[in-house]
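Hey team,

Filing this mostly as a record. A colleague (T.K.) asked me to run one chain through the structure pipeline before their review meeting, and I want the input and output archived in the tracker in case anyone asks later how it was produced. No errors, nothing strange. Just documentation.

Input sequence:
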Amino acid sequence: MAKRNLYLTNVPVDEALARFMAAIEGKSECRSERITVTDALDRVTARAIYARLNSPLYNAAAMDGIAVAACSTAGASETNPVTLVRGRDFTVVDTGDPVHRPYDAVIMAEDVQEVDDDAVRIREAASPWQHIRPIGEDIVTGEMIIPSRHVLRPIDIGVLLSAGITEAEVLQKPRVAIFPTGNEIIEPSEIPKEGEIIESNTRMFEALVREGGGEGTRFDTIPDDPALLAEAVKTAIDQYDMVLVSAGSSAGTEDYTAAVLRQLGEVIVHGVAMKPGKPVILAAVEGKPVIGLPGYPVSAYLAYRNFAAPVLAMLAGRRAADYAVVEAVIARRLVSSLKHREYVRVKAGSVDGKLIASPLARGAGAAMSLVRADGFCVIPQNSEGIEAGETASIELIRPLADLDRSLVSIGSHDIILDIIADMMSAQGFFLAGTHVGSTAGLAALKRGECHIAPIHLLDEETGGYNTAYLRRLFPETPISLIKGLGRVQGLIVQKGNPLDIRSVADLPGRRFINRQRGAGTRLFLDYKLKEAGIAPHDISGYDREAVTHMTVAAAVAGGDADAGMGIASAAAALDLGFIPLGNEEYDFALPPRFLELPQIRQFIDTLKNPAFHKRLEEIGGYTWDASGDVKDVF
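Output structure:
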């Protein structure tokens, strides 16, 4: 049996980075090059830049008007106007024109009264150097304009050119070699077979290197062959400033990276106390940094962020990225291991003046959680976690201003939320949605952790939706309901329904996937099972939970379940069969005071928008007769 790599350690993140920096610092030369200033945007200056010319180059008029000798205007007033003669007492100037002796002041055109073609009258005396920009007012020859290690901005380029500087010496961009590895890896253009994985991490690294001021070169995938990996790294060390090796860094039987790097140089750290991202390799080969990054996308991103990014910043002569840190209320309990510093992706938004952070999926392979995330809740090593309602620090990866324009939604899932988010984004607003089910959403609304709670809760006594639940949960608190959509609930089955499933009575003996506890869909299923006299334990998979309708549909489409509870649009999206079990109302609960918020007004406008209705029609499975109407619940 193949032996596993058991050399992983558990070094604290900060200690691992400090060890790595100490091993490579000063061993990589920062080279410079001269480029034209007009091509220097976002480049780092190698040394200070000094002005070649003054700015202005001469005494210049700061206004349109007339240039005068201030002494010739003495005594001018409203009651004692002074007449000036062209050529003797003044000359006409426009903004930027040179002002020569004997003139030493400019009077604005608005303050000059024309007498005839050769004479003007003024009613206020001018003071010396009034409205004149003297030589070198802005820039003086020999003055330092830009310091060394400065990232050049558009305004810097303009000032350099004004000072007569047309070329600048800048640091060369660090060159980074990027190697994907693995027998199972294929290119995005290929059709994947079972067991194959589309390689995307190294394309992400390419973009991150470019964003960090470097030039990344992504090579063809290296199979799981230690000799081939060693040859590639040896060749790259001669030509590049840093090497990134994607995958092969963990403890699997085909994870060779650490062993190869030990042969070529020194492995400083293999395994850090962070989650996700533990199996990172920090090595030095001929004094140059070589980093082995994990294969899971979230692990890869966080390992790059914590280790590759600071090293690249050092090589590029830049400051390491500073992430804005804010305090936010955590909407759901987070349990963490004492062994690691954990990075939990969160959606965030401002509700009633406080920032609320809702945790997203925590798996190392959940790449979409990075796309959706507004930041990371960083749980320190030796902490057991954070309780719901506690305040914690959030490292933002989106601008804070965006969070003030976010509509925080916690509750039931529907694919229409993606359409609404898309349409709201086009208007400058953001939908920060977390899918926890209807009842958990209402609990979050009651705690003040969201603006709206999407719900579809059937009251068994009345047969009605949502209103009865709201009256029970908010007996003394005003609550409003934005009417959403009518939709069809039912059983999602294989295309063509080969097992001939017609109702919940056919579920025993079939492989089933359910929605999570508290979800309106699950409550509806329980109601139908009770009607049919079927016990939940008679259904194989009743306790197998999915947090979205699309996850249910994906499980059926993939053959992992014969049936699952969901909505018609989710079945249609994946071209599956659907057995309707009943119509329901999918609405949005909120406190009435939120109705005047701009993001809520935009949300309602979107629900009423004919373009939104057209997209619903294309999907199928919805009605929208009252969509966007507001109903007060007492």
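Quick notes for T.K.: The chain is about 25% helix and 30% strand. Residues 1-6 have pLDDT under 50 and may be disordered.
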